[in-house]
Automatic annotation (TrEMBL):
Its EC number is 2.4.1.-. It comes from the Eukaryota. It comes from Urochloa decumbens. Keywords: Cell wall biogenesis/degradation, Glycoprotein, Glycosyltransferase, Golgi apparatus, Membrane, Signal-anchor, Transferase, Transmembrane, Transmembrane helix. InterPro entries: GAUT, Glyco_trans_8, Nucleotide-diphossugar_trans. It is found in: Golgi apparatus membrane. It holds the Pfam family Glyco_transf_8. GO terms for molecular function: glycosyltransferase activity. This is Hexosyltransferase. Signal peptide: none annotated. It is a single-pass type II membrane protein. GO terms for biological process: cell wall organization. The keyword Glycoprotein applies.
C-alpha cells in the first residue's frame, strides 16, 4: 500500500504573508501605523501631570483631560478616610514604611481584642494582612531600598479597610487598653503564684538529704564500728596533736555542720591552698547522728598534715534552756506554732520554716569563746564554702579593737539593716540605723579576747530574749548577729569572701580573685538544683576516686 503524500497544512508565517501582499498595500499600512504613533505621542504629551498644583489639576479636569491612576485611587478612598479619621501623614506617598509600621502596631492590638471577643475569623484576616505588610518591609530592608508605591499602596488600603472594620466592631483603643491591663494583672498574679511555688519546692529540695550523702553517712558509720583502728586514731592522739588544739601560734578554723562531704571540701580546699598546712587546726562540731561517720572520714583521710578536732554538740551540757534563749523559746507552744505552722494565710513563710533555724549547730557561732576558752583568734567558716587562696594572712589583719572582721554586703540597698530588722518596732528604731551596712556570716575573723571583754554573747542573749514574740525579726542567725556585733565589725576586703554562688550570677573576674567562695542560698553545689556553672569549683575538691564516694555517688 502506497503512503499518501504529506500535505503541509501549517499556517503561513506573518513574514511570509506580508511578503505575499502587493507593494502598494504594504506602503499604505506602514503610513497608517506611523500616523497612529504620532497621534498617541501627542495625547500623552498633552495629559495633566500628577504632581501639578491643585489649580492645574482642576483646570485639567474642567477641560475634560483624563486623571492619573493615583488620583483615581485617592478619590476611591475618600469615603473611607473620613470614617477612619486617618491622618494625612499615613496617606502620604512619601512615608510608606512609616504608614505600614503604624498600621502593623495598631492591627496587633486589634488582633488581641478580636481574639478576646472570640472573633477568630477577623483576627485571622488581620494577622494575614500584618504578615503581608511585614513581608513588604522585610523585602525593602533586604534590598537596601525604600518601600515602593506600587507594592505598598494596595497593602495600606487593604489594611485601612480592616482597621475601619475593627472600629465599627467597637474595638475601641481605651477599652482594649483596659482589657490588656487586666490581662497583665492576671499574668502578674499567676507569675507571683508560680514564684511562690518555685520558692516552696526549692526550699523542699534544699532541705532534703541527697541519697549519696545518706549512703556515705551509713557506710562511714559501719566502717567506724567495725574498724577499731579508726577509733584509735582519735582516742590515742599524741601530746603534740593535743597541744596543737590550744596553740595560739597556729591558724585555727571552726566549722559547725552535719554535712560530712561539705566539711571535707572546706578542709581539703583550705589545706591544698595553704602555704603551711601543718600549721592549720580545724575545730569541727557536729551532732550525735553524724559524730561517728565524721570521725571515720577524717580518720581515713589525711589533709596534708592538717590537725582536725571533732566534737558533738550534745556534749556541751551547758547549752541548755536555762542558758540559751533559743532553746528556752522552743519549749514555748506559741514559738513552736510560729516555727512549724504552714497552713492558712497567716502561716509562717516557707523560707523561714527551714530546720537549720532550729538546729543548735546554727547558733553555736555565738558561743565560740565558751567552746574554745583557750583560743584568742579563730576564723569561722560555713560548710557551704570553697577556699581558693591561702588564708593565713587573715590572722595578721588588724581589727582595730573590733570583735569581728567581715565583708560588708551593702553594695545594694536590700542588704542594709532595714532588710533584716523590723524598724517599725520602737526598740529597733531607737538603737539602730536602718541604713547601716549589713555583713555576711560564712567567713569571719573573730578576736575572742575582745569578744569576751565586750560580752558579745550576753548582748546576743539580750536581743534574743526581746524577740520572744518574733516582732524584732523573723528567724535566722544573721539578724541577731547584726544586733550583737553592731559597731564591733571591721570591714574586710571583698576579695576575702565572695558571696552569691548559691542563688545568683557572680562576675567571673570576682570569682577568680576571691579567696573564699560562698554558696549561700538554696542551690548548694552538692544538690541537683545547684548551679551547674559553679559546681566545678566545689567538685574539684571532692575525691571521687575514694571507694566510698564511688559506691555512693558514682552508681
Amino acid at each position: 500500500m502506497r503512503r499518501r503524500p504529506f500535505l503541509d497544512q501549517r499556517r503561513p508565517s506573518f513574514k511570509r504573508r506580508w511578503q505575499q501582499r502587493p507593494w502598494w498595500v504594504r506602503l499604505a499600512l506602514s503610513l497608517l501605523l506611523a500616523l497612529a504613533c504620532v497621534l498617541l505621542l501627542a495625547v500623552l504629551l498633552g495629559s495633566p501631570d500628577p504632581g501639578a498644583s491643585p489649580s492645574t489639576s482642576t483646570a485639567s479636569s474642567g477641560s475634560g483631560a483624563t486623571s492619573s491612576p493615583l488620583l483615581r485611587q485617592r478619590s476611591y478612598l475618600e469615603g473611607i478616610t473620613d470614617g477612619l479619621n486617618m491622618t494625612d501623614e499615613m496617606l502620604s506617598a512619601r512615608s510608606f514604611s512609616r504608614q505600614l509600621m503604624d498600621q502593623i502596631h495598631l492591627a496587633k492590638t486589634y488582633v488581641a481584642a478580636a481574639k478576646e471577643a472570640n472573633n477568630l475569623q477577623f483576627a485571622a484576616e488581620l494577622s494575614a494582612q500584618i504578615r503581608r505588610a511585614q513581608s513588604i518591609l522585610a523585602h525593602a530592608a533586604a534590598h537596601g531600598g525604600t518601600v515602593m508605591e506600587q507594592e505598598a499602596e494596595k497593602a495600606i488600603r487593604d489594611m485601612s479597610v480592616l482597621l475601619f472594620q475593627a472600629q465599627q466592631l467597637r474595638y475601641d483603643s481605651g477599652i482594649t487598653i483596659m482589657k490588656l491591663k487586666g490581662q497583665i494583672q492576671s499574668l502578674e498574679e499567676k507569675s507571683k503564684a508560680e514564684a511562690e511555688k518555685s520558692t516552696k519546692y526549692g526550699q523542699i529540695a534544699a532541705e532534703e538529704l541527697p541519697k549519696g550523702l545518706y549512703c556515705l553517712g551509713v557506710r562511714l558509720t559501719m566502717e567506724w564500728f567495725k574498724n577499731p583502728e579508726l577509733q584509735r586514731k582519735f582516742s590515742d592522739r599524741s601530746p603534740a596533736v593535743q597541744s596543737n588544739l590550744r596553740d595560739n601560734s597556729l591558724y585555727h578554723f571552726c566549722v559547725f555542720s552535719d554535712n560530712i562531704l561539705a566539711v571535707s571540701v572546706v578542709v581539703n580546699s583550705t589545706a591544698i591552698n595553704s602555704k603551711h598546712p601543718q600549721k592549720i587546726v580545724f575545730h569541727l562540731v557536729t551532732d550525735e547522728l553524724n559524730y561517728a561517720p565524721m570521725r571515720a572520714w577524717f580518720a581515713m583521710n589525711d589533709y596534708r598534715g592538717v590537725t582536725v578536732e571533732i566534737q558533738k554538740v550534745e556534749d556541751f551540757t551547758w547549752l541548755n534552756a536555762s542558758y540559751v534563749p533559743v532553746l528556752k523559746q522552743l519549749q514555748n507552744a506559741a514559738t513552736q506554732k510560729f516555727y512549724f505552722s504552714g497552713s492558712g494565710s497567716r502561716g509562717t513563710p516557707v523560707k523561714f520554716r527551714n530546720p537549720k533555724y532550729l538546729s543548735m549547730l546554727n547558733h553555736l557561732r555565738f558561743y565560740i569563746p565558751e567552746i574554745y576558752p583557750e583560743l584568742q583568734k579563730v576564723v569561722f567558716l560555713d560548710d557551704d564554702i570553697v577556699v581558693q587562696k591561702d588564708l593565713s594572712e587573715l590572722f595578721t589583719i588588724n581589727l582595730n579593737g573590733n570583735v569581728m572582721g567581715a565583708v560588708e554586703t551593702c553594695m545594694e540597698t536590700f542588704h542594709r539593716f532595714h532588710k533584716y530588722l523590723n524598724h517599725s518596732h520602737p526598740l529597733i528604731r531607737a538603737h539602730f540605723d536602718p541604713d547601716a551596712c549589713g555583713w555576711a556570716f560564712g567567713m569571719n575573723v573573730l578576736d575572742l579576747i575582745e569578744w569576751r571583754n565586750k560580752n558579745v554573747t550576753g548582748i546576743y542573749h539580750y536581743w534574743q530574749e526581746r524577740n520572744a514574740d518574733h516582732t524584732l525579726w523573723k528567724l535566722g542567725s544573721l539578724p541577731p548577729g547584726l544586733l550583737a556585733f553592731y559597731g564591733l565589725v571591721e570591714a574586710l576586703d571583698p576579695k576575702w569572701h565572695v558571696l552569691g554562688l548559691g542563688y545568683t550570677t557572680v562576675d567571673s573576674a570576682t570569682i577568680k580573685e576571691g579567696a573564699v567562695l560562698h554558696y549561700n542560698g538554696n542551690m548548694k553545689p552538692w544538690l541537683k538544683i545547684g548551679m551547674e556553672k559553679y559546681k566545678g569549683f566545689w567538685d574539684s575538691y571532692v575525691d571521687y576516686s575514694h571507694p566510698l564516694i564511688q559506691q555512693c555517688f558514682m552508681r
